[in-house]
From TrEMBL:
InterPro entries given in the database record: IGPD_sf, ImidazoleglycerolP_deHydtase, ImidazoleglycerP_deHydtase_CS, Ribosomal_Su5_D2-typ_SF
Enzyme Commission code(s) on record: 4.2.1.19
Reaction catalysed by this enzyme: D-erythro-1-(imidazol-4-yl)glycerol 3-phosphate = 3-(imidazol-4-yl)-2-oxopropyl phosphate + H2O
Major subcellular location class: cytoplasm
Protein name, entry field: Imidazoleglycerol-phosphate dehydratase
CDD domains: IGPD
Entry keyword annotation includes Lyase: yes
Similarity remark: Belongs to the imidazoleglycerol-phosphate dehydratase family.
Length: 191
């Protein structure tokens, strides 16, 4: 059915995620406005149904909330994909955002890995620390069991660069989870 509901509660965060790979409602609430904007863009551009309810220790900073949302969202993708049969497996995409150009490539391989090539001139966008972009993507990739490469080709505005990354990852994931007529796309016969 390509859906998953995941929850995670720690002393630092309380997170619930509902995911449908084939579309549906989108509702995001993390307490970090820019992060909500990025997750909303990820869902819309990926064509995913996604609800995220996250309460975190934002009096400390956004790190625990952002990383833990990545963990829970990654686990939701892993469960929704099941044995990964019948999917395209690979996806790559470029997204231009005004002066910035972002790229993402994904392999739903069962082998978690992240390559992140981006440096931001601004340390914050709203209440979001730009360094948390990499933390989110690492948590997401490792818990989804995917190999994810992202990079900023060029840009100056961190808002545009980060939004480009989230949209590029969304489109790459949309392509990779697309249903095909094939079984498991691997010479090994399993992922």
């Amino acid at each position: 059915m390509r859906t998953s509901v995941q929850k995670r509660k720690t002393k630092e965060t309380d997170i619930a995620v509902s995911l449908s790979l084939d579309g549906g409602e989108v509702s995001i609430s993390t307490g970090i406005g820019f992060f909500d904007h990025m997750l909303n863009a990820f869902a819309v551009h990926g064509g995913f149904g996604l609800t995220v309810e996250a309460v975190g220790d934002l009096t400390v900073d956004g790190h625990h909330t952002v990383e833990d949302v990545g963990i829970v969202l990654g686990k939701a993708f892993a469960e929704a994909l099941g044995d990964k049969s019948g999917i395209a497996r690979f996806g790559s995409f470029f997204v231009p955002m005004d002066e910035a150009l972002a790229f993402a490539s994904v392999d739903i391989s069962g082998r978690p890995y992240l390559v992140f090539q981006a440096e931001f001139e601004q340390e914050r966008v709203g209440e979001f620390d730009t360094c948390l972009t990499e933390e989110f993507l690492r948590a997401f990739a490792f818990n989804a069991g995917i190999t994810l490469h992202t990079r900023i080709e060029y840009g100056k505005n961190a808002h545009h660069e980060i939004e480009g990354i989230f949209k590029a990852v969304a489109h790459a994931m949309r392509l990779a989870v697309m249903k095909t007529s094939a079984g498991i796309l691997s010479t090994k016969g399993s992922l």
